[in-house]
Design a protein that fits this description.
The structure is a single chain. The protein is of the alpha/beta class and about 350 residues long. It folds into two domains: about 200 residues, Medium-chain alcohol dehydrogenases, catalytic domain (Quinone Oxidoreductase, Chain A, domain 1), CATH 3.90.180; about 140 residues, NAD(P)-binding Rossmann-like Domain (Rossmann fold, 3-Layer(aba) Sandwich), CATH 3.40.50. The chain is built from nine helices and 17 strands. The strands form four sheets. Strands 3, 4, 5, 6, 7, 16 and 17 form a seven-stranded mixed sheet that branches. The longest helix is centred in the last third of the chain and has 20 residues.
Length: about 350
Amino acid sequence: MKAVTIRNSGIDDQLEAVVETRPLPKLRAGYFLVKVMAVAINPADLLVLDFKMAVPGSLAGCDYAGTVVELGSDVQRDFKLGDRVCGCTRSTDPAQFENGTFAEYIVVKADLQLRIPSGMGFEQAASLGVTTLTTGRFILEDGSVNTSKQNPRQILVYGGSSAMGTMVIQFAKLANFTVLTTSAPHNADLVRSYGADFVVDHYSPDAPAELLAIAKKNALALGPLTLCVDNISRADSAAFCAKVLAPQDETQQSDVLYSVLTPLTPPLPGITTLPTVGYSFLGEEYEFMGQVVPASTEDFERARRFAVVAERLLQLGHVKPHPVDVRTGGLEGVVKTGLPELRNGKVSGKKLVYVM
């Protein structure tokens, strides 16, 4: 089969993604085999290349949509052959080179995948995996955030027009949050359409002060702003969020939770930082940043339960995919046009999807 493999380019130890022929992956217990119909590109697919975080020989890609063609043993949920499914897995896995989605056939942890709602195409569904699973980790880690109605609160979602941003906004609204978010002006209507209540231009030098003023005004009815999801997770976004999360009184700071996609230094002393790296949801031992992390059965069970909830919300239309830019060209298109466009900053307010 054809697949996108990580290789050393031979130039200054730089990594590159190349389309190669690989054997079909072996079916493992708890997994199913999928014929891939579409794949989506995530920032992480570029990050592992540009920061040399991948291992040559490993398989690229996190997101996919396709059809189940073979079921492994020990699958708890009631999947069947022919089911249209979408989801994600870890890509460029140093411990398991068959984990990844940029291939004609893949194996994925079955109980964490989602059945595609009727009426939704493979192209739209391909964008759902990483954003749903990562949002699920954030929701499950913070006991105050769930999809049952609760007392109204407020949340800051930095990077609201990203695929992660629109997914977090939707689940936050389902949990009765008032959403403050940032966006480029041309994407402001997009984030509002997903439920954002207050949208501020993140290019404006006054944006942090504007959001802080909104949060203080909201505090009369919603309580102080103590929750932030940073969907960009760079040094500049951390500094931005730090200004907005400035405590409104001396007792508030220790209650602030800052959720990030990568391990970042907390932007203010005393703020709890929650990295939303979702690898532990596989319920298997994994390597991350040179460390071996033991398997967590508890994390896997929580993720499995969340997948059931997320699948139902998708079927009911309460959660919808991020806008997608559907391309032809398959895996060659991913390598030759998709990753370069993402690297050059040409992707905004949409997710690139390639049809196989």
